[in-house]
Amino acid sequence: MTPHQPIFGPRARGILHGADYNPDQWLHMPHVIDEDFVLMKRAGANIMNVGIFAWAALEPREGEFHFEWLDDILDRLAEINGFACLATPSGSRPQWLSIAYPETNRVGPNRVRNLPGRRHNHNYSSPVMKEKVTIMNTKLASRYKDHPALLVWHVSNEYGGEDHSDLSQQAFRLWLKKRYNDDLDALNRAWWTAFWSHSYRDWSEIESPAPHGETSLHGLVIDWKRFVTHQTIEFMKVEIAPLRRFTPEVPITTNFMGTYPGIDYFKFSSIIDVVSWDSYPQWHAPYGHGSTGRSAEAENDYRRAADVGFSHDLMRSIKRGRPFMLMESTPSVTNWQPVAKLKRPGVHILSSLQAVAHGADTVEYFQWRKSRGSSEKFHGAVVDHVGHGETRVFAEVAELGEILKKLERVAGSTVPASVAIVFDWECRWALDESQGPRNDGRTAYVETVMNHYRAFHKAGVPVDIVDGDGSIDGYRIVVAPMMYMVKPGFAERVRAHVEAGGAFVATYWSGIVDETDLCFLGGFPGPLRSILGIWSEEIDALYPGETNGVVFRDGNSVELSGRYTGYELCDLIHAETAEVLATYESDFYAGRPAVTCNTVGAGKAYYIAARMEEEFLDALYGRLIDLLDVPCAISSTLPHGVVASVRRGAESAFIFIQNYTPSRKTVDLPAETRFIDMLTGDKPGAKIELEAYGVSVLRIEN
Ligand code: GLA
Fold first, then answer.
1. Confidence at residue 213, expressed as pLDDT on a 0 to 100 scale
2. Gap between the Cα atoms of 132 and 82, Å rounded
């Protein structure tokens, strides 16, 4: 992959540092705003996300606009050589708009319309709402189009949720008519509506899923979720139109929420210029899933780091590897996690540089200053209620500001991934909806994908995330954990990848349904069957605490050995053309295949029949990394708890070595490589020392 240009072009160099900034809450206390600008300079902050929830300050009464305060803020940002990530304010609506135009309020799945008062609650199907954002966004774009501070548009805030109003029901039916070519019979067949007499005789009979417990038509639920993504994007396009008209050169973003379940973010790829996202890891919290047998405390952050790394990689992959913006993170704590444990010294810098290591070209916070009242007054901020910069948090933020200046060359560089992991929102929706071998919440799609990702994270192997519709060209290994839904074209892409010499890994509970949730007939895993060379006849679900052993056969072609533990789901498969690498140890299916490998052209397709413990995934992927000669960030062996990530630019590679443990670690560096420590300027010798939660950034000339 060729290095990208810095995401903001030549105007803003380096990794930008900033925060959500809400001066509209402090207009009656102008000295506070004066202090903000002094403190921004001290913190090395050069980008502020302004106007996000400021509609009431910009248009306090319908048609009455006040931009003077925003003019002042943008002018001041320009004076300190800073930039505005200027928001459209639709994330939250003024009272007058909700009251005068009830249709702009969202309707819940129970068909009850919300009252005014919250945020993120507009009706994306409302013509009035679209008209009002068009007026507002036109004014913003025309007024600030030539302002030197305007760097990037922040459209709305965390689009999410769904609307069940009549307007959305009508739009849903129109969307369905188009999807099914005006053929209601085709829809009836696709949704299998003959089941329980659900057949539709007229399009008008179709309603969004209602909260009656589970909905029997899974195809309806999946199409509804697709429609919610579509309708959200349609609304965003309305928001974007005036911005493109007046400022065609100014990039557009909207802030995502990682693995948020409600929206398929891959579908935004072509309408935004830059991905941005809001990351709030629960550092130091007991880690929820999987077992390693190691001391929990020392493991928590190391394990959490893999999940966070996955989310960064997912977000970066939406625009095929282009650097992204870390739009929000907390400089200290949130006020909404169950326990607001303070980040231990060093963790703020470590966590921020983790984002940079995975491709972020900005590090930004929610929020610059704590609000004095209302629901987020105790959410962490760069500036606390005390009002000055003499705090532990401010000092770490300012220290990071200095560090980011030293990393200027990193901006625009990319993450050179030769492994792709498939994460598909539609597959997730289908699995979440399905009633099958596990109905106890342990289908666990996101967790399963992250478990497979963790093996590569630990090995320092860069990974891209692709969806079931995306290209897998150019990767050496493609892993599709629990690919329950296989959409048209996926199997063909996988076959081409394997035939050309790539490795493909699939697991239990794959190739079960098509894109409308109809089961494949003729044997699972459906379209993947001949590629994997197996037939899955049944799947066994195990109760908590039950396990089965998986034992590698002597002399298997991948030269793996030993016994590993499977749990929760065990697929009972027949090897058709595949080689059996490992078999089940016990139960009535003892001796039957548990891990297989099928040769297709120049490559191999592996099937993991059971949900396997972490040590198995480490062993299998470690072997594939060797066999496929997949490059790691650093060639030396890292101490447990330390992770290496890499970004590559035109002239240099940048290696981020991150210690996710509360103890000091010594890291051996490969003797043959010459590094420059970007934070100290030194040329390190054979070893570097990392403090507890320490991080080092090393540069290598290409
Ligand atoms: C989200 C929102 C912010 C703020 C933070 C708090 O990310 O976008 O406005 O509420 O959460 O963590």
1. 66
2. 30
Strands (E), 375-441: 419-422
* Dihedral sign for Cα atoms in the order 473, 476, 480, 486: positive
Residue 48's region, left for phi above 0, alpha for psi from -120 to 50, else beta, is beta
Do 653 and 700 touch, CB atoms closer than 8 A? yes
Q: Which of 356, 320, 337, 156 is nearest to 237 (CA)?
A: 156
Count H helices and E strands in the chain, helices first.
16, 26
Ligand 1 atom 9 nearest Cα: 366
Residues 197-244: tens digit of each pLDDT: 999 999 999 999 988 766 789 999 999 999 999 999 999 999 999 999
Report how far residue 239's alpha carbon sits from residue 232's, in angstroms, rounded to the nearest whole number: 11
Closest CA to 696 of 674, 678, 681, 682: 678
* CA neighbours closer than 13 Å in the CB half-sphere of residue 487: 15
The Cα 425–Cα 265 span in angstroms is 8
Active site residue 158: yes
| pTM of the predicted structure, to 2 decimals | 0.98
- What's the 379 CA to ligand 1 centre distance in angstroms? 9
Q: Which of 45, 70, 62, 43 is nearest to 104 (CA)?
A: 62
Atom of ligand 1 nearest to the CA of 255: 8
Residue from 259, 278, 337 to probe ligand 1 pocket by mutation (most atoms less than 8 Å from CB):
278
User: Model confidence over 251-269: pLDDT tens digits?
Assistant: 999 999 999 999 999 999 9
Order the strands of the 695-701 sheet from edge to edge.
Answer: 642-648, 652-659, 695-701, 676-677
- Which atom of ligand 1 approaches the CA of 53 most closely? 9
- Token reading at 48: 């502020």
The ranges of the chain with pLDDT < 70 are: 1-4, 213-214, 289-297
Residue among 239, 299, 328, 364 flagged as catalytic: 328
Instruction: Determine if ligand 1 sits within 6 Å of the CB of residue 119.
Output: no
| Distance of CA 376 from the midpoint of ligand 1 (Å) | 9
Q: 118 CA distance to ligand 1 centroid (A)?
A: 13
Query: Where do the domains of the chain lie, and which CATH numbers do they carry?
Result: 46-268 (3.20.20.80), 419-627 (3.40.50.880), 642-701 (2.60.40.1180)
The pLDDT value recorded for residue 292 is 44
Q: Is 468 exposed, middle or buried (0-12, 13-18, 19+ CB in 10 A)?
A: buried
Q: Is 328 a catalytic residue?
A: yes
| Nearest ligand 1 atom, CA 278 | 7
Q: Is the CB of 278 under 6 A from ligand 1?
A: yes
- Residue 282 C-alpha to ligand 1 middle, in angstroms? 15
Burial of 362 (0-12, 13-18, 19+ CB in 10 A): buried
